[in-house]
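check these C-alpha cells.
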Amino acid sequence: MSPAAPTALIADDEAPMREQLRMRLQEAWPELRIVAEAANGMEAVAMAEVQQPDIVFLDIRMPGMGGIDAAKQLYSHCHIVFVTAYDQYAVDAFEQGAIDYLLKPVTTERLATTRARLGKRLARPPQDIGAQLAQLSGLLRDGAGAPRPNYLRWIQAQVGNSLRMISTREVLFFQSEDKYTRVQTLTAELLIRKTLKELADELDPDEFWRIHRSTLVRVDAISEVSRDLRGRQMLRLRNWAGELEVSRNHTYLFQQM
C-alpha cells in the first residue's frame, strides 16, 4: 500500500466508540482507508493477518485479549496507536516512548497530531516497541495500574433522527424527570430512557455522587455548597446558573457544613 493511501484497522469492544473514531478519522485523515473493525484483540489479530493494515488503532481494555496483548503480536507488521479513556499510568509511559496514543473522547485536533507523526513513520518499517509493551503490561498489572471496573463512559441520547454520543466527563448532573432522565451538560439538556438507578450502578462512584433520590452530580463540577433560608444544603456548579438540592439523607457527603 502506498504511503499516500494508508490503511487502518480499528479495534474497540464498543461499537459507538468504533463509529466515533471512524468519523473523526474521516475528518482528520480523508485518504486513510479503514479496512476492518474488530470488537476485541483476538479479532484484531486475525483481521490484521488478512487485511495487512498499515496502522492499527487498539483500545487498551477489551474483553478477552486486550489491546496490549494484541499489539505484542502486531507491532512488527504495522504501526500501533492505542486508544484509552483513563489509564493515566499507561499514558505516562506513552509520553516517554515511541508508541502513539489517543485519549477518549478522540478529537479531530489530537488526530491531526497523530496523523503528522504517523505520516513520518509510515515511510519506515514499524519500530520495535516490545520493551515499551512489556512496561505497559507491568503497569496495568501492578497496584497502581490495575484494571478498574468497567464504568460507564458514554451516554447515548436520541436527538431527532440522530444519536448523540456524550462523554460522562461532559455531564454536570443527571436528574429524574417522569419516565426519563435529564442529562445536563454545559451546552445542552437532553433526555434519556435509562433510569437513575441504572446510572448509579454503572457510573464511577468517585466521579458521581447521589445527592438526592432524583439527582446524581459530577463531583468535580461542584463549586460551592451553602445553606438556604430553610436550612437545606444547596450546590452550585461551575459555569452553570442553577442550584441543586442535597436531601437530608445525603448531607453526610458535606459534613463540614
About this structure: The longest strand covers residues 171-177. Residues 143-147 have pLDDT under 50 and may be disordered. The chain has two domains: 7-141, 154-254.
